[in-house]
UniProtKB/TrEMBL annotation:
Segments for region (Disordered): 104-126
Record-linked Pfam families: SSB
Keyword DNA-binding part of the UniProt annotation: yes
A GO cellular component entry from the record: nucleoid
Keywords per UniProt: DNA-binding
PANTHER family cross-referenced by the UniProt entry: SINGLE-STRANDED DNA-BINDING PROTEIN
Family annotation (Gene3D superfamilies): Nucleic acid-binding proteins
Entry protein name: Single-stranded DNA-binding protein
Xref: InterPro entries: NA-bd_OB-fold, Primosome_PriB/ssb, ssDNA-bd
Family matches, as SUPFAM superfamilies: Nucleic acid-binding proteins
GO molecular function (one): single-stranded DNA binding
Keyword NAD: no
């Protein structure tokens, strides 16, 4: 790879699998990554593509809107003309790694696990 871009984001729409004319499977999904904080926060949208056997697997069943994912791969940038005539930029990532992180927001399994606490001896002098 000539460059590597890694981030954790949220799936913005359900993933789709299509096939090229040569029969290669391609899984596409848009992933949102929030950058900045407060009133300066922005959402960075990245179109993610997974090719080959991994795209043909069951991953598409889990990449639903709201799912948190870790993505890493080669990032490219393309430009296109928007409907309003302005020049727009799109980020596209060919994923080498795409892993699920936690549960979906609307899933009961997404609730954080209770944190185990240890009993500490209060006689510790520091």
């Amino acid at each position: 790879m000539s460059n590597v871009f890694s981030f954790v984001g949220t799936v913005g729409n359900d993933a789709q699998v299509r096939y090229t004319a040569a029969g290669l499977a391609v899984l596409n999904v848009n992933v949102a990554n929030n950058i900045g904080f407060g009133d300066k926060q922005q959402t960075l949208w990245v179109r993610v593509a997974v090719f080959g056997k991994r795209a043909e697997g069951r991953l598409v069943e889990y990449l639903k809107k709201g799912q948190a994912v870790f993505v890493s791969g080669e990032l490219t940038q393309s430009q296109y003309q928007g409907q309003d005539g302005t020049l727009k930029t799109a980020l596209e990532l060919t994923a080498q790694v795409l892993e699920l992180v936690g549960g979906r927001k609307d899933s009961p399994a997404a609730a954080p696990a209770p944190v185990a606490t240890a009993d500490y001896d209060d006689d510790i002098p520091f």
